[in-house]
Fold this protein.
Amino acid sequence: MLARSARHPRLRGIVHTLWAAEPAADGPPCREAVLPTGAIHLVFRLGGPPLRVFADASGRPTAYGPAVVGGPRTAAYVREAAATRSVGALLEAGAASLLLGLPAGELAEQHVDLEGLWGPAAHHAAERLAAAGDAAERLDRFEMLLAARLREGAALHPAVAMALACFERGADVGSVVRASGLSHRHFLHLFRDAVGLLPKSHCRVRRFQRALGLLHTRPAIETALACGYADQPHFQREFRAIAGLTPGDYLRLAPLQRNHVPLPARVNSFQDG
């Protein structure tokens, strides 16, 4: 996979990461649990099977078109993983309204076909990306396409920008709301429109992601305390509620990408892990 930050000046603060992937070795599709990051993903599949998402590891799948938006989530979902040529972007907070035309909160906990947001332009974009000679050219075309689609609009609200920075430092929601000078209700509305999740849910997912980053190098109890969990049982409960797996299960399954966990064929429900 080829990945880089956005270079176009209009996309600074709008697109966090751009990536392009080529099909790996052929093989039968398998299922994987995709762990929540709290961010919005925009992806074009330029060949191969459509994205198929399962309500759980044993349910019937829902198929999506070649261009799809993955909204911010608070828990893992199961998808069919297949080798495909694809290109995608990880969006920053506040980008949904400027690139997709709607508040981020309207995308939460779901996938949405991009054609429903962009109309025929989504199909034309897919054709242009598919015609690129290699992954690097696809990234360049994708970046120019996003810059051209970017709507003029206000920057991220200062209270939301302040809150995101404070939450990354471990501040609690109540103190951040007070520091914003806004009413609790108004703050929650602004934050959800920009980020897609309510502040407590966002903080919960971000703490989980910090724990994932430490879990490979520290014992579970050290990871728990370093990330602000009350104790190891609290960490275990939160991890299972978000990932559908225990920390031990996660390490045994040894994902090559930390947010994409391969599920053994024998597992009937990843929540039962």
